[in-house]
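Section 5.1 Outputs to date
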Amino acid sequence: MRFVVKRLLLFAAALFGVSVLVFAALRILPGDVAVVMAGTNATASRVAALRAEFGLDRPYVVQYLDWAGGLLHGDLGMSALTGRPVATQVGTRAAVTFPLIILGLVIALAIGLPLGCAAVITRSPRLRGFFHVLAIAGGAVPALWSGLLLLLLFGRGIGVLGVLPSQGFPTDGWSAPGRAFASLILPALATGIVAAAGIMRYTRAALEDIAADGGPVDMAMACGMTRTQALLGVGLRLAAPQLVSVAGLTFASMITGVMVVENLFALPGLGALLVGDVGNRDLVAVQSELFLLAAFFLTLGLAVDLAHRALDPRLADDKEDR
């Protein structure tokens, strides 16, 4: 319980620090946000009215407190460009981005874990060399390039086979789950294949360290297990804390990685929303979107930390336990 409380306090302190950093970073950008929103031909009275409407004429401390108070109540503010609540816009775009990331992570785990285990189990030097080259080559391929190859192979209208949608997302969203899922398959493969190479390397390294240690694997083999059974039944379980951390870091890195893939496949996700709002200097929307992304990274790190501790209590810091 002390461990959980300390992590939650650190999490709250990190959220506060991120909110201050995001707010300050956007305020020091060059240019007047009110002038950008009003347009080049706007009068001075119009600019002043916009500045008052969005609270840009108040002291920075008051602006921050108002924004932070809204965050605590789930109010992310109103977009200066669309006039819609930022929470609504983020929720609509997140319904595309997060299913894409989850599907990509599932693909990465489905490919990376078996190949990583196979690289350790096999006794053939040629197969070991093949798996080694495969892991290096897979990690070196950019997601944009793999996405282009998948489009040329499977994209409907432009690919050789043309069996999957190549652009866009259904206008009615997930109310048409079949079409929505089909539109995410190619971008999820583009990100998942690249991420699988990293998971494969970490899985192989973790199992090789456990096998080299000799104790748990040799003891399992002495109890009647084969080497393969010992590595998969005992070694993989001992490597689980490390693999959970790798999966969490992979999930976090895919949040930024899918932004490029979303543009390639013309998906209306969070990446396109953030890039558009930054280009249009929609200050209220950008600061809330950046804070939500940072908060998600911190939440994911907290979840991985707690899961790591639950899977292997031996990893507890002696100073914390005392």
